[in-house]
Amino acid sequence: MGHEFEINQEIQVDATPEQVWEAIATGPGIDSWFMGRNEVQPGEGGTVRMHMGETFMGESTVTAWEPPHRLRYQSAPGEDGAFMAFEFLVEGRGKGTTTVRLVHSGILGGDSWADEYDALRKGDPLYLRTLGLYLTYFAGRTGTPVSAWAPPQADEATAWAGVTGALGLSTEVSEGDAVRFSLDGSTETEGVVDTVLYPSFIGVRTDDALYRFVGGGGMIGVGHHLFADVDEKEAVQEWQAWLGRVFA
Asked: Is the full-model pTM beyond 0.85?
């Protein structure tokens, strides 16, 4: 039996509705704040595709296309009836500010539906916040998405301690904390913690990136957005190697 769900989140951003639409309704825009590599075929009846690495692709059909105010897309139901739908409602507030409301709904199936719902309930506001950070600090720039995973760890405390230590942080992380780390062992990167959800998510902002460290249980990985001129495959390999060294 499937389990219906609906999650509502809302943020206000210093951007116009047109800027928000560019971020939520184009592939390069979505790449700059959400997961994976994305493609959008515009218009009602169009398609939204997400690629995560070499093994996963999600596909949804656009069911509402009203630029720049409303976008909705929905995946096809599985054999158990499970599906997901995303709806964005965008409203200008004047003086260059806009309210963005995300309604994430659908049906979850399988025995692990409760864990999946908990992950969505926590993840949706984090990614919506990343959208706000993108529009605030990187509007008009296109991010390169980078995803990689560390080897599984014994538990989430081990994973959390590993990534916080590698970022020059204590395990008691707070927004605004200074971050220092080296990706290649020589060049140091400095940034600031912009988002924390203990013990599964740290967001770090620099002048050229929104770094996202995310996990659960003994899993930890990265889902970054890089705004410098980088090669995506090389960046994935570099971060895969970094995670391997951190959790060797």
From this structure: yes
